[in-house]
Amino acid sequence: MGKEAAPRKVGEKEALAIGGQIRGSARKLNLVAQMIRGRKVEEALNILKFSPKGMAEDVRKVLASAVANAENNHNLDVDALIVSEASVGKSLTMKRFATRARGRSTRIVKPFSRLRVVVREQEEA
To answer: Hey, which family's this protein in (predicted)?
Structure first.
């Protein structure tokens, strides 16, 4: 009797992974996400592994999760996967206060970001 299953959020030959609470600004995270958009998964993982950017490690984890979802949940061929989408958005923001001179204070903003990675199985031509 229960509820119907929710429809898939991605296409038939696609798999999805979401990093919901990545510590850092969306602007910095998007610079790293740009490096992997449209590339083969193996190449994207190598780029992220050797990137000097701090956010690259978090992006690599989300991408590895998307590959694992594709392999285990959707029975897709790992060698034929490409990164079809890597979108970034803002998440929550922690607000802290720092004391300053003359009894004043300043707001410190500690942003979090969301990352959505979709991998797609590429058809061989």
So the answer is: Belongs to the universal ribosomal protein uL22 family.
